[in-house]
Every structure is written in structure tokens, then in C-alpha cells.
Amino acid sequence: MNANLMLMNQRYRAAAGPALPPRTTLATLPADLRQWVSEPTLVGWVLEEVADALDGHCPALSPSENGPPVATMLTVLTYCYATARYGFDEIESATATDITIRYLCAKHFVTSSAIRRFRRVHRALLHSCLTSLLRRAWWHRFGRLDRGGGGSAEFARAEGGHDDRCTYRLAAVAEQQIQQAILADSMALDV
What we know:
Blueprint: H1 3-11, H2 39-54, H3 70-82, H4 88-97, H5 99-105, H6 112-121, H7 123-141, H8 153-158, H9 163-190
């Protein structure tokens, strides 16, 4: 038998013992959260997460120059990123065509320059809202419906019982979404 083939067979041989149940991973997280929850539910969650994020910080946050208020921009961008809309041109056009985004704009006109400026200035706030929204969708999907401590057996099994590790991974997914939006914007400006 060929030495390489023998080594390969040893490396990929199934481990002895009982088979482990399949793990739920963050790879199952959809780009568009409407695949997991209804659109009205997602809109409600976005509004709640934005309200929670701005609670106590509103006096420190001033409205964007020549643009919508911070709460409106944060709501629109959180929803758009959660529904896999990343490019500023796509978001700007969706404000005129998508009834849900038009509702979230609260009668404000969202421009591409306002989107880029907002994301640059309030990136940490946007990241926090996205992470909270992703965590909420994850918990809803895999059995943990409350926002406090505790937790279900399904969630503990899915993530090995480590809330911190799951939160860290969801924060990484939120960062990837923001990076994807920045990349889409850069590509649109290069054309």
C-alpha cells in the first residue's frame, strides 16, 4: 500500500465510540433574518434593539448633519444589514421602493452620503445593535426566547453552554456584515 494512502486512511478514520449529535453552528445563520422570523417580528425586534441601544445615550447623540436623526439611521441600517442589503445605493433606492424601509425612515430621506457618514461616526453603536439582533434571532431559533440569564438545554447543547463564546461569534458576524457594506460601498464608488 502506498505510504501516503496509508497515512491518509489513518488521519480520516472515524473515531471510536458513540457518535456525537450534530452541532449547531453559526454557519446556519442566514444572511437575511426574514428566513427565520416574519418581517413584522423582525421590524419589532429592530425597533426594540435600537431603543435599548439609545436608552440613556440620546442626549449625547445629536442628529446627523443634513440628514435623518440618529435613531432613524440606526434603525434603517440595522434592518437593512439584517436583511442582506449592504450597499448604500441599494439602501437608498430601497427607501423609495420597499414599504418596510420607507416606514422605518419615518418620513426622512436617507441619502448615500448620510449612510456612509453615519456608519463612520456611529459604527460601534451599529455593531452593538446588529450583535444584539443576531443574538435575539439565534436564541429565538434555537429555543432561548428570554433575554436574561437562564437558558434552555437546546441552547446549551448548541453552543456547549458558553454564552460568551456565542456572543463573541455573533459579534464577529455583525462585524462581517459591516465590512461587507463597506466593501459594497467602496466597489460602488470605484465604478
